[in-house]
Amino acid sequence: MTTLIARQSTLDAYVFDVLMPDLVGHDRRPAAFVVYLFLLHSAQALGRDQVPASLQTISVKTGLSKSAVQVALRHLKRRGLIGAEEVGTQVNPVRQVLRPWRRRLEVVG
After folding, report:
1. 19: how many CB neighbours lie within 10 A of its CB?
2. Is the pTM of this model over 0.70?
3. Half-sphere exposure of 86 (CA within 13 A, CB side)
4. Looking at the record's lineage, which domain of life comes first (predicted)?
């Protein structure tokens, strides 16, 4: 008998209330939103902000082409949603997932 254990992921409301309309609607970059969701979910599953994820891995896991992933990553870097510096190797990069809205909430709260 096989038992499936579902992983539950909790995302900040900000991701869907503000970030999704901004990236998908305003920026017209739905691939960037999909890539960010993948990286954010992976970061939460690992319990840290750095995610080992190559272009190939992101491409396979999201269903996007590698070129679409590259464009999305560049856009996410410009928007300050992932770190500008990649660590790791070129073959096995580690990407830092940023949550800038949390810093803003800490300053306000």
Report:
1. 23
2. yes
3. 16
4. Bacteria
Task: Compute how many other C-beta atoms are within 10 angstroms of the C-beta atom of residue 35.
Answer: 29
- 108, 109, 82, 105: which is closest to 12 by C-alpha? 105
User: Cα dist. 71→2, 23, 35, 36, 74 in Å?
Assistant: 40, 13, 10, 12, 5
Q: Return mean pLDDT, the chain.
A: 87
Residue range 3-27, pLDDT digits in tens = 555 566 778 899 999 999 999 999 9
Residues contacting 17, CB < 8 A, separation 6+: none
Which helix (H) or strand (E) is 35 found in, with range? Answer: helix 30-46
Q: 9 is written with which tokens?
A: 């992921």
For every residue of 43-80, which 3-state class applies, written as one string? HHHHCCCEEECCHHHHHHHHCCCHHHHHHHHHHHHHCC
Identity at 76, one-letter amino acid code: L
